[in-house]
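User: Structure tokens for this complex, please. No commentary.
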Amino acid sequence: MHLLPVPLADYTVLSTVMFLIGVCGVIVRRNPLIMLMSIELMFNAANLLFVTYARAWLNNAGHIFAFLVITVAAAEAAIGLAIVVIAFRSSERVDVDQVSALRG
Amino acid sequence: MLALVIVLLPLVAGALLFLVPRDDARLSKSVGALVAATLVVLAFIERSQSWTWRWLTHPFIANIHFGPTYLSYWLVVLLTLCTFGAVLSTNVSRTRSMVAALLLLEGTMAGLFLARDLLVFALFWDAMLLPVFFALLSWGENPATAWRFFIYNFAGGLLLLLAVAAFGALTGTTDVIGNPAYHGIVSPWAPWILAGFAVAFLVKTPVWPLHTWMPPTYEATPAPMVAVVSAVQSKAGLYGFLAIALALFPSYFSAEVPVLVILAVISLLYGAFIALVQQNVKLIVAYSSLSHLGLILLAIASLDPIALRGALVYIVAHGLFSATLFIVLGYVEEREATRSLAHLGGLGWTNPRLTGAFCVAALAALGLPGLAGFAGELVILIGVYQGGYAWAVILALVAIVTAAAYMLRLLQGATQGPVRTDIPMRRDLTWLEGAAVAPLLFALLYFGVYPNALLGLHP
Amino acid sequence: MMLLLALVVPLAGAALCWAFGPVLRSTAGWLATVAVAISFVLVLLTGSGHAALFSWMPGFDFGLMLDRLSLLWALIITGVGFLIHLYSIGYMDGDRAFARFFAYMNFFIFAMLLLVLSDNWIGLLVGWGLVGLASYFLIGFWFERRSAVAAAQKAFVINVVGDVGMMFAIFLIVANVHSISFSDAFSAASSFSPALLYAICFALFIGAAAKSAQVPLQTWLPDAMEGPTPVSALIHAATMVTAGVYLVARCAPLWDQSPSAQMLVGTIGALTAVSAAILGAVQWDIKRILAYSTMSQIGYMIMGVGIGAYAGGIAHFFTHAFFKAQLFLASGLIIHALRNEQDVRLMGGLAKRMPLAFWATLTGVLAISGIPGFSGFFSKDQIIAGALAHGHPWMYAVGIATAGITAYYMFRLLFITFLGEYRGNVDPAQLGIKREVQSSVAQEPEHHRAPAWVMGLPVAVLIAPTIAVGWLLFGSSRAPSPWSRFFAEQFSPGLTSAPAIPESLTTIITFCVVLLGIAIAALRYATQPARTNAVARLRAETERMPKVLVNAYYVDALIDLVFVKTARFLGALFGRVVDPHVVDAAVRESAASAQGLGSLVRELQSGLVRAYAFVIAIGVGCFLIYYLVSGVGH
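Assistant:
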């Protein structure tokens, strides 16, 4: 426990708060860029937990997963931005609610 | 090895045919006819050699295993003969694609009949639907027909695949078709597996009440392809009953027999009566097929050895005459541009050779003594009677009388009566068109006089 | 081997005429005729024998057999067949399908020979079906006439009913004997139960009744007269329609053991004999008169073989083949000369114009009426006397009555056709004839190239046996007659008792009834006033004819109602109601319910990213709450 200067619960709370902010961002905002950022926020909330518990339990799997998540997040951001750019080119709007071509 | 060649040659040739220029009908037809003729020869030669390659060891043993059994030998011969006739008679728009589709159909069906492994069987079962499906999409008028055909049969195919998987999981191997050492499965799951197989076979045959895909499909498919489909593809279900249901599930199958007998008799009469009132010539033959295939199913369901012999004869006979009938109706349609009996008539004077071929095929279909249809019918009914279904025999005899009525109605409606002046006068059959049906007609006569030729090889 | 050759030669002739018809042209007729002649000689040379040929199916062996019964039939088929072929060369001359006609005729000879020469049930059935086919082709030979097409179809379908009956008999036999040969079935017959025997005989007799036009399967024969006249002579009088008689005689060992089946056959035969004879008396078409008389005479034969008087029934077949072929050929001479006119009301006075036809018809009429000295007298007498001897007095009575009616309508035919004035130029309406279209037939021969003797010779030749065979077979006073000695080993004599009425008295009674029939016919048609007033009288008779007889007892209408209409109704019911609205509706309903489910789920698929995110968040929330509440992990 001495490895963690701050109590474990605080990390968890911080992570939860970050995650909820991300969720709210995705749900509430219509700007795709902000939504992508919110998703990044949720990734990082998860990463924070991975790293915290890796330190707390002295298990390196958490670190490995954190790196994996960072990689995936980068890829996701790249693809996401590409989709956003294409969507904007065709409709020139900055509103995700206008992009509903997959409606059943 | 030869068995593998019979499966692969038409598949490869069919695929390569797409390299031929799109509108070179002559070249594609010659290539197709050459391949089909080669296959006829190969099919006759091929007697017993089989070819195996280990495919799966886990979760059960499955082999890519091809080789003829006694039954599938004749089915492949029938298939190659019918395909040869169909290729020669092809005269539709986009001839190249039709010939290619016919070859692909031949390859997939040869694969089905020659497969000695259930998994391979199931694979080709679905594969053989594709050429017909695409033919329906490209030549048929209504895509709904194509989808109806595909969904019906593919649903059957899925059940079949499930049943095969369950069979493999239970017994550890699927390499069991025509394996004399294999005496059948014993398991509480077996009835369910058998049911999966049976539904697929009943749809494909088809048998009442799973037949409603068949009339529109037969009507919409171009003549050369429907000739092969009705002659051979419909036999896949019956072959399945004989080679799989009966051989692998003997005790469970005999428990299901009463249901099958009833369905078979219903199909037999139902098809016959509907054929009696149709105006569309292709639908008359389609519904007559329902009736005739019901007769074969009755033979299989009676479980009598003589009836099973008769079933083999009638399977071949029905293939020969229904292929001929559909090819001939294709000729009629090309000449007169109609399928309605109300608009046909008097072909006997203008097209005597066409009428001759039509006549032999129709007479075989109505069970004229001396032609193969009669031999099959008679032996089937002798067996069914011995099997203890006298009531079914009597109803089948009613259907035979009805068959005489509707086949004569078809034949006379198209070829007799006054010569029509309101329809275009066309030339009689060319020698090429005649050559397409001549082998089929000869076989009808030969097997009718000497049906023992079909059974003589029997161990 | 010669037997096989006798069978194959007509088949080869048929194949040649069919394949090379356009090349052969008029030679086809001679080719076919020669083929039949060769066949006749071969049968005659063979005399008797048996040839095993090949195995039709494992355990089912196919062979040919020539015994006394089949010898008789084969000789009539090829002998009379030869004469009729010869005649046809003249009759069909100029027809545009001349070669095809002879192909069918030769094919018929082949099929009929196969029928009588087979030593097994399958061969019999194949021959049985193929003669039906030949008959179908020949009835519908002029197939641009709708009436011919309909008649051919009717004949074929009714014959298939018969085939199906025979098939059922074969199932019964094979299931019990496990062999298809006649001899196995006959030797096992004594071990069959009476019910089984009756069932076999009944089913076989369905076949016999259909082929021989017995009640209630008789309606096709009068319509079959749509075919060319030589066809009517060969197929629908002399040979094919007697196949039923052959069948019963062939299966005598079965019938002998089943008295109830014998009773059935005899009854049907007697019923047909009398009912057809009555109908024969109200016909106007010369060929239909002969058709009904054929039915009636076959009724005699069937009655004869049915009650066990085999020799008598077969004798009547033998004599009938000659005199009926002759009558038909003579009527063919008339029809040919009058350019396809068949209505006797438009004939008359032909005795002077066509002496050969007159004399041939006269001898034929005398023979069929049973005038002593002519062939029909001997054979008919055998059957009538046999009925009494075998203990069936009412059949005896029917036989005598029918003989009288026969004499009446045959002399009626003779008088109307040959006496009085020629009425061919009278307006048909004056005679009460209603015609929708003038029956101008497209087949009118244009050029007569064939020599005249080809038609005259067969008619003249047939007069000899019509008169003479009776004397040859039964004329000697010694008993038993040569005829019964010929068949002594073929048939068991059966149970006969000394008849209550001696045979000579029977002969006298019959003759009196026949004379009565002739007298009535003469009074109505041959007297001086009848001949001078012919037009008015015939018209009056036409108008007064009872409807029930004109419509042949409404049997056709009944069959149409009970079978044809029912089958069509079922077809329409299945095809237009059950298929689309029940079976397919079930299929469409299941498709529709899958679609309905899909459209329900589809509402969730809004396409809005934020909505999906919201749903996911709710889902995550639910999981969280679940974990918190259930305390998993503690």
